[in-house]
Amino acid sequence: NIYSEWEPGTQLKLDNDSLAHSCLSLELGFVPYQLGHCTVQGEVVWVLGGSDHRIHIFSEDKLRHTYTELEGGMVEFQEELPSVPLFTDILTTNGVRATAVACECGHLKLTLVDETKNELLRTWSLAFDGPLTSVILMRPGSPEAGLPRILEGRAKLPVRQPARYNLKFHS
C-alpha cells in the first residue's frame, strides 16, 4: 500500500516520480498488520497492529515532514496483547472512546476511555476458540448487520446470516 499526501484542488498524479516524491518511508521493528486511523484530541493518528503483540500509534511531525511513534499516546494500547492484533475498531462519541481489538489467539479486548483525560474507564476481555479476524463497533443509528434489503426474498441459494453476539457486561 502507498500512502501519500494530496492537496485538494490539484490533479492526482499516479506516476512513479510524483509518488516517490510525496511518500515517506518508516523503518518498523515488527511486521505490520492492520493499518487504520482515528482522531485523538483533534489530531489524526495512524493506528497499526504489529507482530510484536502491540498496537502502535503514529503521529505526523509536520516540522520534520515525517511520522513518529507516540509513546503512551492512547492509554488502551499501552499493554502488550496475548497475540497478534488482527483487527482494531475505534469509535468516539461524546468524549468517550470505545476500542475493540481482535487477536489471532481468539482474545477480544474492549475498552472505554475518557478522551479528554486519556483515562481508562473500563476494560473487558473475552476469549474465543479461534482467531478473530474482524470486529466492528456499531455506529449510533446504523442498521443492524444482516442480509442487505436488496437481496431479501431474491437469493437463489440459502444465505447464512452472520453470527451476532449480544454481549452484556456486568460489574
- How would you classify the helix and strand content by structural class? mainly beta
Largest sheet: spatial strand order: 1-2-3-4
Largest sheet: 4 strands, antiparallel
**Helix and strand string, N-terminal first?**
HEEEEEEEE
Q: What are the low-pLDDT stretches, counting only 5+ consecutive residues below 50? A: 154-163, 165-171
Helical proportion, percent range: under 10%
- Strand content is 35-45%
3D shape: globular
First CA to last CA: what distance?
42 Å
The gyration radius over C-alpha positions equals: 19 Å
Number of strands: 8
Number of helices: 1
Summarize model confidence as the mean pLDDT: 78
Give the SSE layout.
Elements: H1 16-22, E1 32-40, E2 43-50, E3 55-61, E4 66-69, E5 85-93, E6 96-103, E7 107-114, E8 119-127
Antiparallel strand pairs: 1-2, 2-3, 3-4, 5-6, 6-7, 7-8
Describe the model.
- It is a single chain.
- The protein is mainly beta.
- A hairpin with a 3-residue loop joins β6 and β7 (107-114).
- A 4-stranded antiparallel beta sheet has the order 1-2-3-4, with no helix packed on it.
- Helices cover 4% and strands 36% of the residues.
- It has one helix at 16-22; strands at residues 32-40, 43-50, 55-61, 66-69, 85-93, 96-103, 107-114, 119-127.
Which structural traits does this protein have?
171 residues, mainly beta, 1 helix
Summarize, please.
This protein has 171 residues and is mainly beta.
